[in-house]
Design goal:
231 residues, mainly alpha, 8 helices
Length: 231
């Protein structure tokens, strides 16, 4: 072992544990400050903290992200409904169902009902997802116009991208992180425009953690043999 290997290992452990720990500490502090100054409701502050913990657990491929995720999406379904972001509110209901599906698949979706491993997405599925995002965005944009929703196009687009990302994440597909990064880049200014400043900050943290998730999952990705037939 060379002298540089211990320092490299220590550096990796700090990135894996220290950085998320600092983000969590900052998250709790910000949530407390926002709630105590009435800049956010207790529900939004709590959802802010549980959201960050949940994403960190996904990055770590921990199965405990699912029960916490169910609580988090239930909270945000109500928050977004109050702010007339109807597509995002409805999206949380779908997230709830996908979390239940993902919980099962992560435990038993592998070969011979074993734990699911990180995999790549086939080119065919990526093409289908692109078609879905376009069609879903057009439909939701029309529907939100009828319902009087705010930020109709951007709400529809982020909803469609997020649905696709959650579907891939539920099946441990590496490319889910690319979609999460894209969605978060849009979500941050969208929520700022609606006065959801704490939630906007949360999605800024999500953006950072999505990049961390992409890098972490790349290290453990395996090639899905069946996917080759779809290329």
């Amino acid at each position: 072992m060379t002298q540089t290997e211990p320092s490299r290992t220590s550096g990796n452990r700090f990135i894996e544990l220290g950085v998320p720990g600092l983000l969590l500490l900052a998250t709790i502090s910000i949530a407390w400050a926002a709630w105590s100054t009435k800049a956010a409701s207790a529900l939004e502050a709590g959802a802010f903290v549980t959201g960050v913990i949940c994403v960190w657990l996904v990055v770590r491929q921990s199965i405990w992200n699912f029960p916490l995720g169910l609580l988090n999406v239930a909270a945000y379904a109500w928050i977004f409904y109050e702010y007339r972001l109807y597509a995002d509110s409805g999206l949380q209901v779908v997230y709830f169902a996908l979390n239940l599906i993902g919980w099962y698949l992560w435990l038993f979706g592998g070969e011979n009902r074993t734990e699911l491993q990180v995999q790549r997405t086939s080119k065919r599925e990526l093409a289908l997802i692109a078609v879905f995002v376009a069609a879903s965005t057009a439909f939701l944009w029309w529907l939100l116009g009828k319902l009087g929703g705010a930020a109709k196009f951007w709400d529809a687009l982020t909803t469609s991208i997020s649905l696709s990302a959650q579907w891939l994440q539920s099946r441990k597909k590496l490319e889910c992180w690319h979609l999460w990064i894209l969605a978060d880049l849009i979500y941050v200014p969208l929520y700022i425009s609606r006065g959801l400043n704490l939630t906007a900050l949360l999605y800024g943290v999500f953006l950072c953690m999505a990049v961390m998730g992409l890098l972490a999952w790349k290290k453990s990705v395996t090639t899905w043999p069946i996917a080759k037939s779809f290329e």
